[in-house]
Here is the input.
Amino acid sequence: MRKLAFAGLIIAGGATLVGLSASGCSSPNKSGSCKAPAPTDCAQLYDPTYEQVFTRTLQPTCAAGGASCHGAGKGGFLIDNIDDTYSRISTRLVASKPECSEVVDRTYSTETGYAMPPGAQLSEAERCSIVKWIAAGAKR
Here is the structure.
């Protein structure tokens, strides 16, 4: 089993990831390299801001309903409110480098137990919005 590499990430002001190690892309994606699918020439579903990513993709697909993996009472990575979720998700991405981000890697993966959300994947337009938000710096 491959390990996730989180070395080299820096959180500035408790908000945005801004740095990488001197060795290049210390990738948090499962492949261990900056190779997550991250097309930036795609058509996004909405304006790629964190508020839109949270309200239009994360909450309705990952945290809503009884089958949610990230809702209240499920433990682990909760998607419960906009600020706390940003703090959690920011450790799983590399600002301005969607190809190095676990968030992108998981949304494009088809691997059972790793792909997010499990079951039906996000639409290409939803994934594109996430990719463009991260590419633009993943700002809160």
The longest strand covers residues 16-19. The two ends are 33 Å apart (CA to CA).
